[in-house]
Amino acid sequence: MKGTAWKFGNDIDTDIIVPGRYLIYTDEERLSEHCMEGLDAEFNEKCKKGDFIVAGTNFGCGSSREHAPIALKGVGVAAVIAESFARIFYRNATNVGVPLLEAPGITKIVEDGDEIEVDMEKGCITSANGETITFKKLPPFMLEILEQGGLIEYLKNKK
Amino acid sequence: MPTMSEKILAKASGKNQVEAGDIVIANIDVAMAHDLTGPLSVESFEKIGTEKVWDSSKIVIPFDHQVPADSIDSAKNHMIMRKFVKEQGIENFYDVNAGVCHQILPELGHVVPGEVVVGADSHTCTHGALGAFSTGIGSTDMAMVFSEGNLWFKVPETNRFNITGKLKENVYAKDVILNIIGQVSVDGSTYKACEFAGQTVSDMSISDRMVLCNMAIEMGGKTGLVEPDKKTINYVEKRSNKPYKVFKTDLNSSSLNIIDIDVSDLEPQVACPHHVDNVKPVSEVDQEIDQVFLGSCTNGRLSDLRDAAKILKGNKVANGVRMLVIPASKEIYSKALDEGLLKIFVDAGALVSAPCCGPCLGGHTGIIGPDEVSLSTSNRNFKGRQGSPDGKVYLSSAAVAAASAIEGKIVVPE
Fold first, then answer.
1. Which of A38, A136, B64, B214 is the most exposed place for a label (fewest CB within 10 A)?
2. Which domain holds residue B186?
3. What Å distances lie between residue A85 and A40, A59, A60, A106, A133, CA to CA?
4. Do B363 and A155 touch (CB under 8 A)?
5. Residue B401 sits in the same domain as residue B373
C-alpha cells in the first residue's frame, strides 16, 4: 500500500478524532466530515482514500466511542501507524476494519505529507527517503477481520 | 498467586486460575449502553442477526448524555433505544429522568463485588470501586455481548497504588487521583488494572473510591479496583439482592507492580489544558474562568454537592462567571433538595440542572466558546472536550470549583 502520511503528535484522543457533539451521528459520511477538525479543519478534504495517519504514543486515548475509528474509515485512512495505541481504541478500530500498526520509531523517519509504503505481509514501512522500519505483523485472523471490513462482516461471512 | 483481576476473570471464564497475558472468554454479569453509544451497539447487534439478546435481565440501558433530547437527531437516538428496550424486553431501562450511568448502576444495585461489568463508555472503570472487574468497550464489542453474553479479554497486569497518609482538610479524592495521573502520565497504566489500596483508601467513602476508579482510564487503565471491605458490603447489601463474591489481591503476585503514594502533604490539585496529566498544585495556577461545572460521574455526588454548598453558602458566584450544578442522579438530586443544598446554589447565582452528563463531553448543555475557560469537576480536559477547540478546560475537586466560582479565578478553598 502506498499513500500520503499525515502526521500527528502524542496522546491524540478520541475527542480530537471526532468531537463529542457529533456522536449523535452513526454514519461514516457525517462523522468523517469532522474527523480531526480540532487540530486540522481541512483534514477531511486533504486526506485521500488510502492515505495513512502517523502518530506518536497513546493514539486513541480517552472515550470508548466507536464513532472515532468509523470517522477514520470514512475519510479513507488505510492504516494508523503509531508509536503506541490506547487499549479500547485498538479493539474498536480492529472491530470496524481500520488497521492499527504499532511501529516504534515511526515518528523519527516520517514527516507530514511524505509518501510512504506499507507492506502488511512483510510487516515493514518504507519512508519517503527509503528508510525502513518494521512493525509487529498482525495475526492471520486479525488480517482477515480487517480485509472483510470489520468483525461483524467477518462473523457473517463465516456463518 | 493471583491478583483480584486474575481471580475475577478466572471465575468468569470457568477456569481455576488465569495469569496476566492470558486471553480468556469471560461471561458478562452486567452490560451497559447509554443513549449515545447505544444506537451504534443496536445497529451492530441487528447486523449480527441474532433475534434475542442473551439475557434481558443483565442489560442496563440508561439515558444520560443527551437528556432531555436537545435536537431531532438525539430524539431519534432515544427512539432507537426505547424501541430496542421494548422489543428485547430489557428489564433495566432508565429514561431521561434517572441520572448518569456510572452513578445509577451502583446506586440502584446493578453492580456487586466479583462481577464482570462491561459498558459502552470508557468510564465504566468506576464500578471497580465495589470490587467488580469493570471496563469500557466499544459498540461492536457490546453488540457481541448482547448476542453472546461473553467477550474475550486479555488478562491485565496490575498497578497497585498503595496510598497512605491523612488528607489535609481541603484535599479530596479528586486531588489524589489527579496527583497520581500527573506522576504516572496519561499512558502510565495502559492495559493495566489500577488497584487503589492503603489506609487512605480504607478511610475513604464509597463515593470517594468511585472518584479514584473513575479516572483509572485517564492513565490508560483497563479498570479501577478497590478491594471490598465492610463499607462496600454495607453499600451493596442496602441496594442489591444479587449474590456477590469478595476477591482480594495476593501481594506476592508476579503480575503486581506496587506504587507507594504518600498524600500527607498533598495540596489541592488542578489538571491544566489539554491533557489530564498536566497537573499542578492550585497555588501555582493563576487563571481567570468563565464557567464552572460541578457535576459528572466523577464529582456529581452528594458529598461533592455538600462540600461545594459549604463554601458557597452566603456567597455569590463572581460577576461574569456562570456556574452549572448538575447532581449525578435522581437520588442525589432529591437528597440535595431535602438538605437545602440546591437552594444554596440557586441563591449564590448558580444554575441547577436535572441529572445528566452536562457539559462534560461538550455535546449537550454548557458548551464553551473560543478562548473561554471552564473549570470542571469532570474527568477530561482534552482540546475541544467541552465545545470550541480554542476553549480551555481545567479539572478540579468540587471544593476548588466552588471557591473559584466565588473568586472568578482558580483558587485554593480556604
1. A136
2. 4-260
3. 21, 5, 6, 13, 17
4. no
5. yes
Q: Which residues contact A1 (CB under 8 A, 6 or more apart)?
A: A50, A78, A79, A117, A118, A119, A120
Taking the Cβ of residue B190 and every Cβ of chain A, the question of whether any pair is shorter than 8 Å is answered with yes
b/e burial code for range B283-319 (CB count within 10 A of at least 16 → b): eebebebbbbbbbbbbbbbbbbbebbbebbeebebbe
ipTM: 0.94
Q: Does the N-terminal peptide bond of residue B68 adopt cis geometry, omega within 30 degrees of 0?
A: yes
pLDDT of B62-79, one tens digit each?
999 999 999 999 999 999
What CATH code is carried by the domain that includes residue B63? 3.30.499.10
Radius of gyration of chain A (CA): 15
Q: How far is CA B145 from the centre of its chain?
A: 21
Which residue does chain B place closest to A60, by CA atoms?
B220
pLDDT tens figures, B148-162: 999 999 999 999 999
Instruction: Kindly state the cell numbers that stand for A71.
Output: 470517522
Are residues B229 and B304 both part of a single domain? no
C-alpha closest to that of B399 among B99, B168, B235: B168
Distance CA B279, CA B292 (A): 18
- Rounded to whole angstroms, the Cα distance separating B388 from B327 reads 24
Q: How far is CA B263 from the centre of its chain?
A: 22
> Could you say which residues from 194 to 253 on chain B have a Cβ atom under 8 Å away from some Cβ of chain A?
217, 220, 222
Q: What is the per-residue pLDDT for A156? A: 83
